């Protein structure tokens, strides 16, 4: 999905800021000692790619229309509902799920919601599975990766790509777990021309690397070379 116009400008600004500081750190002390800095910078870029409001910039006002992905998600949900489908939406950013809730409220779409702080998880899951009038379930990836059996859904949307395919697959499996007779459709929303695309390219090159990147086991970014870091933070000429 292409970024919104102002979103794209902001993305390039943040990219040039973080690129300088990350590359100078890597130059001075190498990749492994710069991991915290690299992860923080990647998170900022991924947040801009999802929705500029996640950046909480005091001097800039953004709204839902400025997130290219949010627009795409609304279209997917609308088309899914028209086609009689029911949708699980996963994001790693709880604040992003809150922003998605706002647009679903605006669009009059009923939904269930679950993040790490949700206490009545099983009741919510049962309500979704048993009540076909609720077409959407919003779930934070960390909270929803395990132990939920979401048999009511046949469509899965990963709003922001998870770099550990095992975790993403585990989340997707929530909808497959059913003796499901319907085919489960999976969408991954990738912001065009951003670090999200680069992560996917890198992950195709280095499957072993990606199983450790940002996963809870093993050291994050293990096996990342200086040239990998350089390409993750490169400024595209497009």
Task: Give structural notes.
This protein has 238 residues and is of the alpha/beta class. Helix content is 52%, strand content 9%. It has ten helices and five strands, in the order αααβαβαβαβαβααα. It has helices spanning 5-33, 35-50, 68-82, 94-107, 121-130, 141-144, 165-176, 195-205, 207-212, 226-232, and strands at 87-91, 111-114, 136-140, 155-158, 185-188. Strands 2-3-1-4-5 form a five-stranded parallel beta sheet, sandwiched between helices. α7 (165-176) links the parallel β4 and β5 (185-188). α1 (5-33) packs antiparallel against α2. The longest helix has 29 residues, at 5-33. The chain is globular and about 55 Å long. The chain starts with a helix and ends in a 6-residue tail after the last helix. The model is unreliable at 214-219 (pLDDT under 50).
What are the salient characteristics of this protein?
single chain; 238 residues; alpha/beta; five-stranded parallel beta sheet; 9% strand; globular
Q: Indicate the proportion of strand residues.
A: 5-15%
Number of separate helices: 10
Elements, N to C (H/E): HHHEHEHEHEHEHHH
Radius of gyration: 18 Å
Cα distance spanning the termini: 15 Å
Q: Quick one: overall form?
A: globular
Helix content: 40-55%
């Amino acid at each position: 999905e292409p970024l919104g116009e102002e979103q794209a400008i902001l993305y390039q600004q943040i990219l040039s800021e973080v690129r300088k500081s990350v590359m100078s750190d890597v130059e001075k002390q190498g990749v492994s000692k710069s991991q915290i800095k690299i992860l923080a910078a990647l998170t900022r870029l991924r947040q801009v790619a999802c929705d500029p409001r996640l950046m909480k910039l005091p001097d800039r006002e953004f709204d839902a229309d400025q997130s290219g992905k949010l627009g795409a998600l609304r279209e997917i949900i609308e088309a899914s509902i028209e086609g009689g489908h029911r949708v699980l939406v996963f994001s790693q950013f709880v604040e992003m799920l809150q922003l998605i809730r706002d647009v679903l409220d605006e669009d009059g779409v009923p939904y269930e919601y679950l993040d790490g702080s949700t206490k009545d998880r099983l009741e919510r899951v049962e309500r979704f599975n048993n009540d076909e009038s609720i077409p959407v379930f919003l779930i934070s990836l960390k909270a929803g990766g395990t132990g939920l059996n979401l048999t009511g859904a046949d469509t899965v949307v990963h709003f922001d790509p998870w770099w550990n395919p095992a975790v993403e697959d585990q989340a997707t499996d929530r909808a497959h777990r059913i003796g499901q007779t319907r085919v489960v459709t999976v969408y991954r929303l990738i912001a065009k021309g951003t670090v999200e695309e680069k992560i996917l390219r890198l992950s195709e090159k280095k499957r072993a690397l990606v199983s450790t990147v940002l996963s809870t086991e093993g050291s994050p970014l293990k096996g990342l070379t200086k040239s990998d870091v350089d390409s993750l933070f490169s400024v595209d000429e497009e």
